[in-house]
């Protein structure tokens, strides 16, 4: 299965969802494998968690989300895609991460103002060679993550992804740009 399930395949609501093109890059940066243990912190609709669960059939995905409406959407999408290896955790990250098995990959989709703490606790749970992959829309978040990487001696990589979709405008077609997204990958060297 290739990452990037079309957005309209997911049950959505007012909860933000990572768009399919960004999701494909984020998942690729995660370097998932069939037995991986994955956390998705600030999971929103669960689009990344669901796709990750499909990519790690013998692994386990933990989707953390504090918003009750989002938790319900994750549960619905879990059912829609029949991913039994996805566990939904209705809790604010990073509370309780220490009770989970060590992670190969941690996806951070939202921090709720607790970015530093989430990164610290995620790093403490990361296996050697593991990755933290975060998507951010602001330059300030990008700078904070890169600063954290430098302080911790982590290898850091970042890409800015800009997507434009073709839309019909009367008898013409125009490109409609989506906001650029920074995708930052931190790697805990072996």
Short description:
The protein is α/β, with parallel strands linked by helices. The protein has 5 helices and 9 strands. It has a single domain, classed as Vaccinia Virus protein VP39 (Rossmann fold), CATH 3.40.50.150.
> CATH superfamily name?
Vaccinia Virus protein VP39
Q: Structural class of the secondary structure composition?
A: alpha/beta
Count of helical segments?
A: 5
Largest sheet, in brief, is:
7 strands, mixed
Strand content: 25-35%
Topology, number of strands: 9
Mean model confidence by pLDDT: 95
Based on Cα principal axes, name the global outline.
globular
Q: Strand arrangement, largest sheet?
A: 3-2-1-4-5-9-6
Walkthrough of the structure:
With 190 residues, the chain is an alpha/beta fold. The protein has one domain: Rossmann fold (3-Layer(aba) Sandwich). Helices cover 31% and strands 31% of the residues. It contains five helices and nine strands. The protein has a seven-stranded mixed sheet, sandwiched between helices. Strands 7-8 form a two-stranded antiparallel sheet. Strand 2, helix 3 and strand 3 form a beta-alpha-beta unit. It is globular and about 55 Å long. 38% of the residues are buried.
